[in-house]
């Protein structure tokens, strides 16, 4: 079945149709991979994590999510040493945690549940029994709303989030595509999926090391570091370069975290030019970043686009192969200003004056 799907993808890879997703659908498409990754690490149902994120952020619309990248309403507590922000919740101006990116919020949510004594009983439940987890969270005092468990269950069943309880981080993009077939027409999403498929071909190497009289844990860590390094190198070798629908510009999706110097060496393009092409502020690249191997255009291949949950102007510029400065100019926005979810972004002509 998966092979048939992939064959079908090829014929539509170059197309980008205007698709207006609802806010909560956008949230699921963007953050399901995080939820599945956390499920694999901590055995928390991905459906539960996603439903909680949807509820806490209002589909990514909340002030905490947009300003603090905090998707689960986790307050500072005595053990938090990171950035903070004030927000009125149960009481005025309460202290909430601030994260560098939403992925940290998802990780912290898992750690929060896994290390608090109130939630110990949850981890004795079946990781695929979302109903038991929903009622368990309510019983453990996670939320004060008496209907909390039913609200979570309703979201899980309305959006079929239980599909993510039966997938893995290597298959999650196929699960998203199953729920949202119209993503077949999104060239960037399909490039991401193709790269994930390519990543599947990379198998961790077998490492032989000489025996040394040291702790087993230390030797295991050394072997793990070697395996990670060799796997990472193999993933970078397996980069799939695609042609973007906007004039066929060459781009790819990062298969793993890396430095721009590694991409420069692989493609024989100077770091300076790569940074300029992609309007980067740092040499650090993250997995799933969109990277262009040539300069982007001044306009998009479609007229407008509705900004998704958590999307920045840089994200949109990369998605549609448009120079970020041109995008700001077309939309009469100040440099550094970010769009609101659902905001209409002009990709070809200037936004009409209001």
Automatic annotation (TrEMBL):
Lineage: Bacteria, Pseudomonadati, Bacteroidota, Flavobacteriia, Flavobacteriales
PROSITE patterns per UniProt: LYSM
Biased composition regions of type Polar residues, renumbered to the chain: 331-341
Domain LysM: 303-347
InterPro entries registered for this protein in UniProt: Glycosyl_Hydrolase_73, LysM, MGlyc_endo_b_GlcNAc-like_dom
One Pfam family of this chain: LysM
Keyword terms of this UniProt record: Hydrolase
Spans through the membrane: none
CDD domains referenced in this protein's UniProt entry, alphabetically: LysM
Span of the signal peptide: none
Gene3D superfamilies recorded: 1.10.530.10
Region (Disordered) location: 329-354
Claim: Membrane is one of the keywords in the record: no
Protein name per Swiss-Prot or TrEMBL: Glucosaminidase domain-containing protein
